[in-house]
Structure formats: C-alpha cells, structure tokens
C-alpha cells in the first residue's frame, strides 16, 4: 500500500525530524509508529500521507510513483487535533465535504452521511457546530469525515489524545471494526500502553528520527531494554509481569488476566 525509501525531513532551522526511514505498509496491516515526543512520528505520518514533501527519499503508493488525485483519494489522514479537520458550520457539512470534492451525487453523499452517522453515533450531532462537541465526539466526527471518501489507508496521529476513558473504549472498538473491514491503519503514538490495542506490527523510532527497531507488537513491547534506550517506558502490564519474574510476558490486560487465572 505504501513504500517509503530513505525518507528524510528537516525543519526550517535545520533540525532533522526524520532521517533515512525505509518502511513498507502492506494491505490490511495495523502498524504503530511508536516513539518518544520529538522522535518525528507526526512528521513521518504526514510524509507517508503525502502532506509534506520529503527533503530526501521517496514514497510510492499502491505501486505508483506519481500520487495524483486518484491515489490521494485512497488515503485518509487524521492529525492530532480533530479541529483541524472539522471546519464547516455543522458536522453534517464536514462529512459531506469529502464526497463533494469527489464529485459524487447528492444522493450518494446523503447515503454516506447517514451510514457514517449511524456507525459513529452522530445522528443527534449532525446539525451541531463541531466546536460544541466533546473531545470524543470530535474524534468520531473527524474519523467519519475522513472515512466519507472511503479510503483504503487510514493514517492516525495520536487518535486518543485528550479523549476520556469511555470515548477511548468506543474509538478502539471503531478501529477494530475498520480493520475487520480491511482498512489499512497506521497509528502514531508515544503511548506504549495503547500499542497492543491498535497494532500488530510496530516501527520504533528513536529521538534522532531513525528507525531503531521493527517487528511484531509482542517482539517490540517485550524488549524492555530497547524501549528504555529509545526513551520510552515499557507498557504497564509488561513491566509488572517482568518485575514479578514471569517469562513470555503478556502485552494486553486480557492476556495478563488469563495468565493470572491459570497461575
């Protein structure tokens, strides 16, 4: 779906944000870009989404060298602040915006709005200004707006930041549903406790904007020494079982509960 080769990006002051990243995203994968603050995760996500031009390297989409409108329409990018994506007077108009840019008929746009509003529990919010929504409601509305163009790849930058517990659980369920529907999902986060819930593969970035490790979620999250070297604390459940002397460390709470029951 996405092939990045030698990606590099430097800020205007000369600071290197991303340095020589090679990365391939396969269809249907759930990948986490994991790293401490300042590791270039958000910049890398924007590079992968075609919203920033790299200083060095290249990105190929779906085996095509030239992005073009057809390729861009298959990518959905959601930044940390959902307010950057919600700019119309109402939630309904924000969800309609993508289909309108694709030139879809009013009937098809209405169908997509109705479908997404039901899926994301937004029916009662469609005529409300986005700025009057709660953090979780804004996240749902922003994701619905991204999905209104029916993308094949969804790039999410810290999707659960500033979201309370109840809304976090709902959003995680929604991401599971999207993955089950075949959407390829790339999530940027500094939160090791979140990774196992959103990814099957992890790309670990260091503070210098380089990839320091890549592998399955279990491989990366249970390598506690490497995580600490990268400036991250291991997931709480991993650290707890590691300190208790367990082998074959669990990475999810449900897995840990089952281990304790068997014990």
Can you walk me through this structure?
- The chain contains 11 helices and 9 strands.
- With 263 residues, it is an alpha/beta fold.
- It has 2 domains: 2-74 and 151-216, P-loop containing nucleotide triphosphate hydrolases (Rossmann fold, 3-Layer(aba) Sandwich); 81-150, no CATH class.
- The strands form 2 sheets. The protein has a 6-stranded mixed beta sheet with strand order 5-6-7-3-8-9, sandwiched between helices. A 3-stranded antiparallel beta sheet has the order 2-1-4, with helices on one face.
- A hairpin with a 5-residue loop joins strand 8 (201-205) and strand 9 (211-216).
- Helix 3 (91-101) crosses helix 4 (106-119) and helix 3 (91-101) runs parallel beside helix 5.
First-residue to last-residue Cα separation: 42 Å
Proportion in helices:
25-40%
Query: Under the CATH scheme, which architecture of the largest domain would be assigned?
Result: 3-Layer(aba) Sandwich
Strand order in the sheet with the most strands: 5-6-7-3-8-9
Any idea what the CATH superfamily of the largest domain is called?
Answer: P-loop containing nucleotide triphosphate hydrolases
Main beta sheet, described? Answer: 6 strands, mixed
CATH class of the largest domain: Alpha Beta
The radius of gyration over CA amounts to: 19 Å
Number of strands: 9
Shape: globular
Low-confidence runs (pLDDT<50, min 5 residues)? none
Strand proportion, as a percent range, falls in 15-25%
Q: What would the CATH topology of the largest domain be?
A: Rossmann fold
Q: How confident overall, as mean pLDDT?
A: 89
- Strand pairing plus helix content: what structural class? alpha/beta
Element pattern in H and E = EEEHEHEHHHEHEHEEHHHH
Q: Helical segment tally?
A: 11
């Amino acid at each position: 779906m996405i092939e990045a080769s030698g990606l590099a990006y430097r800020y205007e002051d000369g600071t290197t944000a991303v340095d020589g990243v090679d990365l391939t995203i396969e269809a249907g994968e759930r990948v986490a870009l994991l790293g401490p603050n300042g590791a270039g995760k958000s910049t890398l996500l924007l590079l992968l989404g075609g919203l920033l031009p790299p200083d060095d390297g290249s990105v190929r989409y779906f085996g095509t060298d030239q992005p073009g409108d057809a390729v861009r329409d298959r990518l959905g990018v959601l930044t940390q602040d959902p307010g950057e994506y919600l700019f119309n007077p109402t939630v309904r108009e924000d969800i309609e915006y993508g289909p309108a840019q694709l030139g879809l008929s009013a009937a098809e746009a209405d169908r997509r709005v109705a479908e997404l509003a039901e899926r994301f529990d937004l029916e009662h919010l469609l005529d409300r200004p986005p700025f009057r929504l709660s953090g979780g409601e804004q996240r749902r509305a922003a994701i619905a707006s991204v999905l209104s163009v029916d993308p094949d790849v969804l790039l999410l930058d810290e999707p659960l930041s500033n979201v309370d517990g109840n809304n976090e659980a709902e959003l995680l369920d929604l991401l599971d549903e999207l993955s089950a529907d075949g959407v390829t999902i790339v999530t940027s986060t500094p939160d090791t406790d979140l990774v196992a819930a959103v990814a099957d593969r992890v790309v670990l970035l260091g503070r210098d904007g380089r990839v320091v490790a890549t592998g399955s979620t279990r491989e990366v999250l249970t390598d506690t020494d490497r995580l600490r070297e990268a400036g991250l604390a291991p997931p709480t459940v991993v650290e707890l079982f590691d300190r208790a002397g367990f082998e074959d460390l669990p990475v999810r709470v449900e897995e840990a509960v089952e281990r304790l029951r068997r014990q």
